[in-house]
Amino acid sequence: MARKKNQPIRILTEKELKSTIEAVPEERRALASNVVSELIWMSGMLGTLKNKADEIGPLDFFVQGEQSMLRENPALKSYNTTIKNYATLLSKLTDLLPKATAPPPTTDAGDQFDSFVAGRDAD
User: Is residue 93 classed exposed, middle or buried when 0-12, 13-18 and 19+ CB atoms within 10 A define those classes?
Assistant: First the structure.
């Protein structure tokens, strides 16, 4: 689930999020379940906010009494806040997962290097 800086955040499906709970160690599953519930809710909210932002556009003409002004679309503003919170919560869920272990280095490269060094030292 790790992402590179400035890489767009992909909203995970409910199925993907729920399947993540099974990968979390038993003693942390209750917490993971709560995090997943919030992420699922946020996913739905993000869809709604995104549709509204697309419908209105990035700017909204606001009128209140005699005063009128152009302002940032409130749905877009809420979307931006929610997506940041979604990313933070997704990171917390990732932190609950067991740490991946690095695969052992392949022995072919090591053997070739050792052979090279042994052959070089023999001269």
Answer: buried
